[in-house]
Amino acid sequence: MPTQSAQPPAGDRDAIGGGGAVPPAAPAPPVPTISPVTGAGPDAGSGTGPVVPAVTAPAAAASGPGFGPDDPSLFGWPASVGGIPLAFLPGSAAWTTTTTVVSRLDAGRDDLAGPVIGVDGTVWDIDGGFVGESAPTRPRDPALDIVGTDDDALFLTQRRSRLDADAFGYQLSVPGPGVYRVRLHLAELWWGAPGGGPGEAGQRVFDVWAEGVPVLVGVDIFAIAGAMTATSFEVDVAVADQALDLWFAASADVPSVAAIEVLVPGSGAGAAMVAFARQSLGAPYVWATSGPNSFDCSGFTNWVVSNVLGVSIGLNQLHQIAYGSAVGQDVLRPGDLVFFQGTHPYLAGVSHVGIYVGDGQFIHASAGAGAVVVSDLTWGYYASHYYGAVRLV
Questions:
Q1: Model confidence over 103-131: pLDDT tens digits?
Q2: Domains in the chain, start-ordered, CATH in brackets?
Q3: Could you confirm whether 319 is annotated as catalytic?
Q4: From 185, 319, 364, 385, the catalytic residue
Q5: pTM
Q6: Residues 319, 344, 352, 385: which is the catalytic one?
Q7: Which of 185, 297, 344, 385 is catalytic?
Q8: 297 is catalytic
Q9: CA-based diameter of the chain, in Å?
Q10: What does the pLDDT look like over 246-301, one tens digit per residue?
Q11: Are 243 and 175 spatial neighbours (Cβ–Cβ below 8 Å)?
């Protein structure tokens, strides 16, 4: 029973048929942008569970003769990496993933005010680690209602830069090198708010950098959520030392943040996906099959995701790459979907998919090996055809 493909595959590809010799190395993949995760629904609380907005399916063009609903020619190229969130079923592994809290800060809150205690008992510490010059926090009526959260007090103090400085930062302590999840909580309390300026998009726009890399670009709180409404964004960041550096820089008005969480991502869902996937090691590769006894590459990934997470991500790699959030190769963790381009002689672009298992390896239904195998992501063939990755949970 094979567990490792030792030779170059004869064109690993998705379930559209074809085959042939290994194509030449593809151009370097574009840098994926990380998509924001918006906050939960009205008065859903803060920090009480995973964000699960409803799924919006990828838009499909009109299909021509012989083009099924999963044909990749229905979608544009280059492929968009991530951006479509998934709604997970209660009780699935996605809901049992745990995280470890490193820090929770109520941005702009000082010693005199003391920490905020959320309605669920979550403690939000006073501000710390700030770098730069900050404008004084405007006093807010504690009776003001912030839509989308029960923890209104958390959003009534905010950190923002002075009007003559369009940037500020944080240097937050972490236990050591590793991947950390940063969750930023925001609300627009000036543009479109009582006593503030006119409510329209483009009044406050800023970027967020983490460890010297832009992770959120063009954040416009009013355009995303409107005024007086809580929203949140989260990104995973690779940290090389014991300090997580964040930087907020505005292109319009000044940046603003209400609260910051730093977490160690849980591995429950990813580990469950890998464990389930390994049960199919050695199962034969058969074109256009999706389990339980044989698979093609995208049929295999959908089989694992649907059984472990309780959702379907489609039977084509160009459907699957659109879900979740794009992640860099340096922050991959078990359960992430990894995609490859140029592995099919008749298909330009993304043509193969697998599941990252850790330690630089991934599990996939390989046409070249003729079975479900574990392969080395850094090995020449796969390294040269690597396109990108998405995280579903």
A1: 999 998 887 778 899 998 999 999 999 98
A2: 100-264 (2.60.120.430), 268-391 (3.90.1720.10)
A3: no
A4: 364
A5: 0.55
A6: 352
A7: 297
A8: yes
A9: 70
A10: 999 999 999 999 999 998 876 678 888 999 999 999 999 999 999 999 999 999 99
A11: no
